[in-house]
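Re: that chain you flagged

S.,

Sorry for the slow reply, it's been a week of failed gels. I finally had a moment to sit down with the sequence you sent. For the record, here it is as I used it:
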Amino acid sequence: MTKLFGWNISVTSLPGGSAGRLLFFTLIVLVALTGCRSVPSAVVERGNDAPFRPGHPEVYTEAIALIDAEDKPYLNLSLNVKNRSLVRRSTEAGTNLNFSVIVEIYKVEGTTTSLIQRVGYDEIIPVNPDDFFDFGEDYFDNRQLPLPEENMLLEVWFQVTDNNSGLETVQRNYTSVTLPDGATPGVSSISLFVMDTADSLEFRNHTSHIITSEIDSIQFQYQLVQPEQQSNAMLVMNLYKFPADRDPARHLSDTFVGLGTLWYRGIEYQRPERIASIERELITEFGPITFDYKSELPEPGNYRFEVIYYPDGADGERVSKLREFRVTAARKFPQIETVQELRDPLVYLMTTREYEALKEIDDAEELKEAIDAFWLRNMDNAQQAQQVIELYYSRVEQANLQFSNFKDGWKTDMGFVYIMFGPPMYVDRALDRMVWRYSYSDVERVSTFTFVRPKLNDEFFPFHHYVLERRRDYHSVEYNRIQSWLSGHILSLQY
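Prediction finished late last night. Pasting the structure tokens below so you have them in one place:
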């Protein structure tokens, strides 16, 4: 075990042999165990964060092909279902969450696919009938399925159906098998694991791009298939941190600040800070090799862990595997847990002086009282205030679910508009543009918001970033909407 720049590094391998190789779980999949003789590729992996759809199961899936201790290929399947996204139903037998899972595995040959395996199962999770907000622990499942012994590309479909609502979520993953008995080396996708506390001593699968601040440690893991004839291969590992905009959205009527600014670009992939770099020659290590990298959780920010494999040495072809992740300061993201997290989104409703004064309060109880006083200042009664508060922070959480990228969703332009105005009546989409309409009239410009996607000089940008086209006539629109929130009239508005 070696510690380098805060990274604990361990390698498990048996030179030339099969017995005793480490079986491990790998999760983050777009392409896995890619043959190195093909065109070099670099795929940014960021977890399987599928588009959020209200009412549908919130699901995170992973499928990756690996080689076991007997040189046999198998498929490692991982599934995470967020229980809060499921519907509770009470029967004579009790109150339960009830969902079904179907996994279909297809072999891909050119433009055709053929089903090679299908598995399905049901899950019933009891919950407390007296506590409407009790959904229990989130559902995690990890299982392995044997695969045919051949090099092949696989398409893996997950379907999760909430049996209490009838709504479903479908996700697709790709992975490939590279057998260790051939002349073609292979490197798997990079897996990410997290440890909740230092006392738990157990890492668990992490399938999402976002890591919350309650996590204590992280671990990367991947598998390399190294043929014996590859005696001069080299492996390079790098960890980068990228500068990124972390501020809340600006006012709707603010002036444009320039295409080259961090606010517009969102994240600067051209100016990374390299936190760690390791080079390793692979001279006597053959067969499937497992590499582990452990570290304490980095500070909040945007990161990329990179693996570069040179099967013929540093001057030959290369294959890159990239795993991006973001650490958020929130402990229970996307939920709001702390009083500080209640304070921060109020930047959209407060004056600059009010907000700065609120930020000066360090005591949690005093801060909570100040926030309560702010909400009650213009309301007719406490019940009305409670309804407005619930609506506001539910939209903050929904914004986190739908619009998070290099920063929390409530801070994005789309998150800001969603919180203030709610979901649009309908959306017009184009290649690099999206228009949210809050009226069916084409002439009401102030009820239409246009978002554009900046062009970034990085082919590996793994998520969407849209910037609002701001206009001066939005000033009165934003002012009136703030007054509706502060007075409680927001409860009677259609949008």
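What I noticed first: Confidence is low (pLDDT under 50) at residues 1-43.

Talk soon,
D.
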